[in-house]
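Worked Example 4.2. Consider the chain below.
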Amino acid sequence: MKLTDKDVVLFSGDSITDGNRGKSMDCNHIMGHGYQYIVAGRLALDNAEVMPKFINKGYSGENAIDLLEKWKEDVLDNKPTVLSILVGVNEGGFGYFNGLTPDEARERYETNLRAILELTRKELGDIKIVICEPFYCPLDPSDYSYRYTPHPDGVQSHFERPDSHDPEDSVTYRIAVNEKIRAVAPKIAADYGCVFVPLYDKIYEQAERSRMEYFVWDGTHPSIAGHTLIAEEWLKAVENA
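Applying the procedure from the previous section yields the following structure tokens:
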């Protein structure tokens, strides 16, 4: 993807995009770790002669409405020329704990994502916007070890897998919500002239080579293999757009 010295590439989303990013100008950590780091690194290297800029504005635990509430400060004021959005997986958890039906959770996602895109098109015009498909990939509940991830179980101090306390009905609910969100996401992208990055089926296709845990280690968050897969699909979709 060719960029210019005027280009600013901004990544927005939840914890998958946050990637434990730094909140200061410490350039070791400013982009966080994950697909956004890989994409930014590739684009920065390929376009180093013109020195484009890259920003990470992901927030752990957030939904589309949370992004919308600070959209002016985080996005509009930074005037990106390329905007990437990956959000939606937390809509299932929010809906479950707040008694929403899956359709209501989907509507909440759609309403707020459309509001984000309306505002962006109004303020920033015909910039390139990339919408990534949300995914949720629940794992085998009989084994919460790390043996199938890309890292040796026990190589570091123990960290309990976040999905180890998920009730069965919450998993079922989140699957239903993700299916509904996945169904509407490409339509929203098309309605606003955005590039759409399909991810869910790609993750499951790759997981057939080994285990889902090797790509999405807790059902929600990608591993190093999963983030690299997302980055490759992102770059492919943008190049082919």
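The chain has a mean pLDDT of 97. The longest helix spans residues 168-191. Compare this with Example 4.1 before moving on.
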